[in-house]
Hints:
The protein is an all-alpha fold.
Amino acid sequence: MWVGPGLKFLERTWDVSSSTLMSDDEPATRRSQLHFALKLNGCLAHSGWGGWRMVAIPLLSKSVVKPDILEREPKLLLDFLAKLKRGKKINPAEMDAVWRLKIEACALARLAAWKEKGTVDSVSPFNLPVWRFTHLFKAAELDDILTISGVFTTGLSNTLIEIITKALSATPAFVGGTYNSHSAWVLGSSLQALAKREPSEWSNAVDLTSWVRMAAQNWGWSHDVLGGLVVVIQARYARFVAHFFSVDLASSSVTTRSVKISEIYSSLADSLLSHSRPLRLACLRLLDSKIVNYVDGPVEVLKRCIQGEEVPLDLQGVRERVLRIGRVCQVVGDEKAADLCARWLIGVLISHLQQRLLTRF
């Protein structure tokens, strides 16, 4: 059936360019047919239908790159492909090169608009619902693009670098006593995605020194951004370690520790007081990263705080966590170390008290 009438039916569902549907007076009908095609194929994929790979995928690969679909409804299509990828129903690496290039061009075109507008927009109390709604959809679309980006070429790295640089330099909106977490997630996800790319694609194009300073100043409240930046630093440093005798190693800002801890500590100090364990841990790891120069700084205290913070907050880790916390105070030697130690211990205490209250109520 599926190689006869069934195949013809599937072909018909993808045919959104038929004369009866391409009329300018019926855009809603055309969009409804595309919705139906995507939902039908999604149901077939997740139902375990045996003809999915032999029948549906070849037809899907030819249909989704048609201009009538790819250019008119790129967001719908990227969302659909990302869902299939997450469900392991398609593997973009197995698609032909032409298909991959067209999907990449579509994704990069969507991201290009972000480069023009940035990921952090101004906001007023009058357009706050629309602003939050827009940023939520931006985050969802970026998640879709990054899900299928494993087979993209170096163009993605260049685009991510431009988005990250522009976002890091912008001042995030502060409305209603909170920052925009969607913008922070977008920026953090972009950093994580860049770190997963081959370092040779982006390491020489990134000014990590500037990124660290901007992140500490503008985004020190976000564990997504700080954590993503730490992963980027680790990925770049690992590349230079692997090529220890290369010329790039000597000129790398990663190995010269070009950011003084005094330049960023004041911006990150309040984050150490946070009740959020991910934020405290990301802050400590950034301060301890290969790019930060902590000569005459609280090196030992910093490392022991990280060791204590890394112990999981569960019943098995309680004893180990108490022991490591107790060891932190043994290496406090000067005022800088005492300030870092005190802030971190207060943050840990607040976190524990919050958990105790939550378990009671």
